[in-house]
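During data preparation, a discrete fold description was generated, as reproduced here:
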Amino acid sequence: MATIETDEYKALREAVAALGKRHGPGNDPTQLWSDAGKLGYLGVNLPEEYGGGGGGISELSIVLEELGAAGCPLLMLVVSPAICGTVIARFGTDPQKQQWLPALADGTRLMAFGITEPDAGSNSHRITTTARKDGTDWLLTGRKVFVSGVDIADATLIVGRTEDARTGRLKPCLFIVPRDAPGFTRRPIDMELNAAEKQFELVLDDVRLPADALVGDEDAGLLQLFAGLNPERIMTAAFAIGMGRHALAKAIGYARDRTVWNTPIGAHQAIAHPLAQAHIELELARLMMQKAAALYDAGDDLGAGEAANMAKYAAGEACVKAVDQAVHTLGGNGLTREYGLARLVTAARVARIAPVSREMILNYVSHQTLGLPKSY
């Protein structure tokens, strides 16, 4: 597998980096989203026949990483085109694809994604949001938490469970729930995390949905679900790597310019070596992210699952260390609003926690890769 990016990928990086530089941190993400959509960056992973770029998660992860490196990451890139767009492109009906994919590609419509529940976290085996048939309709009942961007999304792709008529067991299924559906309510969660995208708790109280709200086959189960979750992990890695690069660039610039006793502080190994280590770890995380994206785009869902989890783990750890070292490099200035690093201290930890914790990734690698027995 080639690990050196093609000229096409390099050109995409340069173009998106230029867009990110023009917008920069602290500006309205709505305008950036609109501009990125008009330039075709939001839908680079979606099929060309539906207005996308015909690429894959490899291209979309480049877009998110470069915007993050410029200090203006778009969290909804993880959700709308990467998770929802991918699932609909792979498993949706023709009418679903025609209705959603062109608008997701150009950014004129948004979708949120709801899987996490108060008592189940992201454990798809313990999800209690259930869908039951009522004639040809579905009735969806349950609760979701930590759902990003529901207030700006036209619909939410909800992970529910249906009962297998043969076994009585519940199996995961995906439903498109319009934002104005009766019985579908949201409540903002008061977060200390300072982000443009808000978090919500959702309540679904017998939300009536037509038969065509179901995405894919109700018997497909985990296959469809992980078609969205693997891109989510890869894109979270891109988000973290971009954030780490942004923090590191600020620290490097400061270490070059800040002079004490006639010497730039970056000349001292106590400053230089930790920054070099942070750079190395971000680069290693990127390599695993590129591997995961390449496997996913090649259709190797099993291989992509392992690599995507590893990439997300590595990127989360590298991001936290890079941000922490950047703050230390700037000293007191690292906590000022002027330099914009303090806000990243909390944001960086999200990559360790969401969409799946590092402990659950270690469980996955222990069981699936190393073949060790489960403790639960």
About this structure: The chain has ten helices and ten strands. The chain has a mean pLDDT of 93.
